């Protein structure tokens, strides 16, 4: 075994820990949503995350060129909107269902960018899984919650494309000290009106806790994992995220899925894993030796953990 692959925790363990951290943050955010609303929760979580990233990573402003500005702004805005929509969906439909619907975004991006028509079968298979999860034949589908999750899926797709563009220029976590504050400002537009009048030390402490769980801890764990495993292996592992959403929804929120819904989540996970075949990408050389943004390999798979 090479020295690069040695460590107290195997790389797949780091990736799994990142996914659990993301879904735990989402599950624990439900309590905040009840207090300050989904947009207020998104604003608080992103604002706390921004403060943490600004404290641990200096914004590399000197390295930003004019052609970097729009992608950085776009990535921040996409992150803010995606977070609001995701939490809005979690307020209305089960966590596992929300994650599964949102997962259609990166699956579709992977299929379209593969230039292989057969690859389109995987998002279609995942869509079938989502239908089994929502069980529309029972007539109890929360259409607004599904719509919020679908918008979050589109946001995750845009997030991946923009992250790849930024990742092709920079490496490290420095970009997060630029994009997460932009995301927080984006969420503030609707988040502050929702949260105003409800803030106290208990709410702020809760927001700090979920912010550590997402985005801070997962990004650190993912970057460490990606240094020791291929992007295809990483993307295949990340396909388990909808299953972790179901698991945390069951353990934390007591959302019990039916047997049909278990089959649905199995289809989504299988589609995500199958879509990673041939999903490697050679990262282009960096234009400048700076510290910005997630590593290029992250965006070449189903994308990094996203719900900042």
Describe what this molecule looks like in 3D.
- The model is unreliable at 286-303 (pLDDT under 50).
- It contains twelve helices and no strands.
- The protein has one domain (10-280, 292-297).
- 70% of the residues lie in helices and 0% in strands.
- It has 308 residues and is mainly α.
- Helix 1 packs across helix 2, helix 3 (95-102) crosses helix 6 and helix 4 packs across helix 6.
- The longest helix has 46 residues, at 11-56.
- The protein has helices at 11-56, 66-90, 95-102, 104-113, 121-134, 143-167, 176-195, 201-226, 231-238, 241-253, 259-274, 296-300.
Mean pLDDT: 87
Q: Percentage of helical residues? A: over 70%
Question: How do the helices and strands follow one another from N- to C-terminus?
Answer: HHHHHHHHHHHH
Biggest sheet: strands, sense, closure? Answer: none
Determine the strand fraction and express it as a percent band.
Answer: under 5%
The span between the termini is: 34 Å
Structural class: mainly alpha
Q: Helix and strand layout, with pairings?
A:
Layout: H1 11-56, H2 66-90, H3 95-102, H4 104-113, H5 121-134, H6 143-167, H7 176-195, H8 201-226, H9 231-238, H10 241-253, H11 259-274, H12 296-300
Features:
mainly alpha, 12 helices, 0% strand
Short recap of the structure:
The chain is mostly helical and 308 residues long.
């Amino acid at each position: 075994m090479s020295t690069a692959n040695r460590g107290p925790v195997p790389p797949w363990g780091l990736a799994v820990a990142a996914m659990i951290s993301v879904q735990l943050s989402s599950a624990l955010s439900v309590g905040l949503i009840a207090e300050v609303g989904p947009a207020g929760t998104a604003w608080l979580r992103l604002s706390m995350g921004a403060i943490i990233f600004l404290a641990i990573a200096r914004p590399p402003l000197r390295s930003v060129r004019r052609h970097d500005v729009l992608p950085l702004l776009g990535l921040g805005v996409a992150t803010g909107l995606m977070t609001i929509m995701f939490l809005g969906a979690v307020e209305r439909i089960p966590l596992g269902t929300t994650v599964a619907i949102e997962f259609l975004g990166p699956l579709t991006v992977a299929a379209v960018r593969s230039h292989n028509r057969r690859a389109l079968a995987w998002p279609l298979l995942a869509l079938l899984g989502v239908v089994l999860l929502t069980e529309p034949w029972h007539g109890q589908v929360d259409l607004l919650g599904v719509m919020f999750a679908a918008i979050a899926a589109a946001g995750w797709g845009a997030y991946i494309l923009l992250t790849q563009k930024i990742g092709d220029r920079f490496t490290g976590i420095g970009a997060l000290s630029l994009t997460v504050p932009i995301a927080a400002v984006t969420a503030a537009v609707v988040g502050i009106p929702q949260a105003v009048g409800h803030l106290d030390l208990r709410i702020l402490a809760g927001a700090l806790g979920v912010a550590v769980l997402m985005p801070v801890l997962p990004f650190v764990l993912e970057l460490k994992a990606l240094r020791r495993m291929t992007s295809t292996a990483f993307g295949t592992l990340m396909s388990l995220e909808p299953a972790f959403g179901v698991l945390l929804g069951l353990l934390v929120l007591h959302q019990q899925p039916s047997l049909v819904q278990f089959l649905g989540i199995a289809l989504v996970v299988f589609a995500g894993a199958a879509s990673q075949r041939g999903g490697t990408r050679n990262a282009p050389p960096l234009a400048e030796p700076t510290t910005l943004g997630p590593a290029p390999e992250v965006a070449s798979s189903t994308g990094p953990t996203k719900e900042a």
